[in-house]
Write a structure and sequence with these properties.
With 123 residues, the protein is mostly beta strands. The chain is 0% helix and 50% strand. The protein has no helices and 11 strands. β7 and β8 form a beta hairpin.
């Protein structure tokens, strides 16, 4: 399975971005698709994840502003990011797992990772 993330960019505070993560290869058994982010000098942080049946979980810091969704027919997960804040500046990574574990799942439980996409929010 390969993951390709896209959609990052530079946006002003209060703006919006939509990230996409396209999975290719043997994706039929992928259950959990998630988004992590890593800001400069900080550890990876789980942002959101969504299971195959559409059940979503979010980090407290993004609830109400970010929305995760997926299109199983396209093997694609999305992260709609609204009301962006400078604190959201980070490299965003998508990840996929065959199993959905309790939230927040450990980073090590994800089987596949995509290359990151940079999100920069200016004040």
């Amino acid at each position: 399975v390969q993951l390709q993330a896209s959609g990052g960019g530079l946006v002003q505070a209060g703006g919006s971005l939509r990230l996409s993560c396209v999975a290719s290869g043997s994706t039929f058994s992928i259950n959990d698709m998630g988004w992590y982010r890593q800001a400069p000098g900080k550890q990876h942080e789980m942002v959101a994840r969504i299971t195959y049946d559409g059940s979503a979980n979010y980090a407290d810091s993004v609830k109400g502003r970010l929305t995760i969704s997926r299109d199983n027919a396209k093997s694609t997960a999305y992260l709609q990011m609204n009301s962006l804040e400078p604190e959201d500046t980070a490299v965003y990574y998508c990840a996929a797992s065959y199993y959905a574990r309790s939230f927040p799942p450990k980073q090590s439980t994800y089987d596949y990772w995509g290359r990151g996409t940079q999100v920069t929010v200016s004040s």
